[in-house]
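Dear support,

We are seeing what looks like truncated structure output for some complexes. This example has two components. We would appreciate it if you could run it in full and send us the complete token output so we can diff it against ours.
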Amino acid sequence: MMKLPSGALAPMFRAFMDRRKFVFLGCFSFERRCRAVVEVLGKKTSGCERAVMIEIASPKDAFPDYSATIKEKVERNVRELRRRKYVFAHHPVDLLCGEDVMLDLVDSISGPRVSSVVLDITCFPKRFFCFILKRLLISSRIENVLVTYSEVGSRGYALGHLAEDAMTCDYLPGFSGSFPPRGSTVAICAGFEALGMASLLEIFPEETRNMKLILAFPPNGPGTRRQWTTVRQLTYGRAREIRREDVEVIAAWDAEQVYETLHLWDEEQGGLTLAPFGPKPHTLGMALFAIEHEAALYYSQPKAYNPEYSKGYGTAWCYVAKWDGRAAYEVV
Amino acid sequence: MKEAKDTRLRNPFHDLLVTELIDDPQLYRKMFSQEILVGETLQVFQPANVALLGPQGSGKSMVLNLVRYSVLSEWILPKSSKLPQPLRGIKPFFGISLNLARIHFQAFGRRSMSRAMNVAPVDLSIDLSCAADFLNHYLFREFLAGMAFLTSPKGQRFRRWAHIDAERLSWEEIAKLRDFDSWFGYYADCHSLEELRQKCDRRISIWRSFLNANVDMVPDEVWRTKAPLGDPLHGMGNFLNYLARGHDARARLPLFVVIDQYEVLPELNPAFGTHLQRLVNTLVKARDPVVFFKIGARTYDWGRELRIWGSESRIEIQRDYVVVNLADVLVRQENTSLRLFRELAKDVARRRIRVEGHYYRFRRPIEDIFGSWDEHSESRKYFRDPARRHLVLRHVPGRLQRAIIAAGGQDPSPLELRLAGAWVLQQLRRRRHIDHIEEEIAQHPWRRAWWRKERVGIALLQVASIANQRKYYYGWQTLSELSGANISSFLLLFGEIWDKATKRGLHPLKGTLSAAIQTEGVLSASETWRMRDRLEANGGRRRYDVLNRLGPAIHKALIADLAISNPGHSGFSVRESELIGSQEGERVFEFLGNAVSWSIFEERAHTSKERESFTRRKYFLHTLLSPSFSIPYIRVKEPLYVGVAAIYSWFFNQDEIDFRRWTDPAEGKSGERRQATLPFE
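Here is the complete output from our reference environment:
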């Protein structure tokens, strides 16, 4: 069990970080919402000692090639923050970089005087933020870690594919799981894209594959339809064979409930392998569970992202992943 | 109704994945078509290093799985301790396996060991020596599991088959494995097989813990005892020979090592993956007399990195390893039949129906489920009213229409009329006089065997189109052709047809399924095959894009040409020399290779129609994609000859593809077909 205090960004931040100094780590993107949290927290007046913004470069062979549009949109976001006098370090990084590069990144923000970090996962690819979160949580130097996330605006996501050109399913950096692996059940957070999720079942090593599904509580019909389309692709069209008791529907922002559900399933099944294909807060819940239980996180990394991914920005959330040197899963 | 629902849920072809079968030796025993596959791939079961190649879904994993001791032992007959035919010729071996992606071998190099251990900023050789150690110990772990199996009651059959002296399986003997020099004393404190296994697991866990960034240092105990690549394996091979020599001093029991997922290393680890492949190549290059490697790879994924570790030396075919290409074994070559594949498909289907579907008493021939097909019957389905059949001649001048009808006899099929019409239009384009054409019609020149054979597929598509109907696909012959000699596509076809039948309340195993139901299933399978690649890794998204421009282009070129002048233009041909030596050519070749590997294209060598000294290769869309684009699935001679510059522009510039008109930018030469085409919807 875990205590993961969470809520809307402004009151949560006031309650926990009032006058406390922190380092902000966020990620530039072509989406407008990449600026949403940094615009609230990135000023010195809020206690931000240093802000580091990463810019992720897609591989050159990504298809479709949206690089020109993406570059233009990212530059617009960078310009806008500069125009509004935000001060930040700007680091370009390759999407498929190795763990060494990510370790350098974590080292660069967690200097000897830094004890609090705000990690804005809004536009961070999962392979980055899960790894960074893990290192921050196991670090003895970092006392407090707050994770923030901004939802999309009221016009939601693009109707077409959000991400494409998926790579072969592989574990996320830092999350290949314990050895030998525990259990034979794979818990999947389904999102709007199947990517290469089906190949997950091919590499999953156990003799019997039990599947558990977590769906995001949908605000509307199209969202539900897209999730079930993903599930159908995953199951080769046999979604109706999934048993009701193996499906959990959880609000898209509720990372703690995801964690609790996994905890329950883990006790039932004697171990889980996780596949975070759903919304970022669900991935956060999965990552926290995986760090605690040394579970594997599998994902098919897309190489191309639709530059029209989302419109605007909505509610920003804040999750206290570590406080006073104790990770959320260590607080019962 | 309940029976229909049960039948639907019991679709024996639903699970296309073979992993489930592979992980369950008993199930695999019931499902594997050993008579056909083993007979054609015997080298895999002999003491030689083998690269088993084939496109996605061709059955490589199924064949390699039989090498594993736990699987092979299921075949050994309890009474005689022999293998059944046709495996009886196989000499004893002991096979272990390793799936490189599952064990996370790809992780090495992404977090530098040398940097973390402060040996050097980044020293590639140190990181590779760590990867080699991980590989050594993981193989040792598999070997120990094998020893545990042999010492257990379950291993009795295998022991007898391999003539293993049970006395030599005592701990005193097995302790020899602990004392290999190459372990540098790491296992010295182990006093049982279980302790050996636990200590091995601990070592693997330490490496993974470091790679997972749980810890920042590798303990001294591990760092100082890194085993040289291949040395422990040689020791394991020698130990197996020792086990087999209890009664016969010359007996041998070679160690076979199946390596799976070799080809994904560069994709999963772009910076370091080929270096990891070079480690595996080094094992092959060693030509160890007691250890032999069996590596499965998609057709074109093998051969991209053949160098060994620390040297520019390469592993050489025939000298260091042999290639068994399942595509050559099963995929139809020109002018040969699909006999072998059809036998395999029938055997696989029968096993699936009995084991997966639980129809244990099923005895009927598989062909009966789908029935027969003939071209005239098919064409009549499009025009059930004979009075409307003349519509297929509407592009032929009236006088010649009448001559065709007169020559056609009492009840000419729409196909017959369409072929006759095509022949007439061809003659008119050649500017032959209408009187001569009319005279010749009486001799039915469109019935000449080759002329007709090459055009039937297109003519049927055109007849269906004129009738404003979709084409029918039915009959055993059609289904086996559509499978493209790929067992996965066959299973998909059968599964979709099964689903369509049961949705209508029909039992697929009772009677012959109607053409309409089979067609529905085929179209659905074709669409699934088309969409499948979009989600596949390694450039699937680009292939999907090319596919969706190439398919309609071929359709447009073939179906709109009522004279059917170029029936072979369902594919294209390129000079082999153009595919090497230039950046453009090599990029095209890589794309083509991947498309073949992922069963999106089919590739065949062919002889040029032109007097040139170049060899050529021709490419077609996989046959199962044909229904989705309404193009013929029967391949005939003379594809579209095209230069590499044009193909490059199709694939990488996202230009519209026009199979009827293209210009080779390199040569400035127009490849436009000489005849005009008619407007045709």
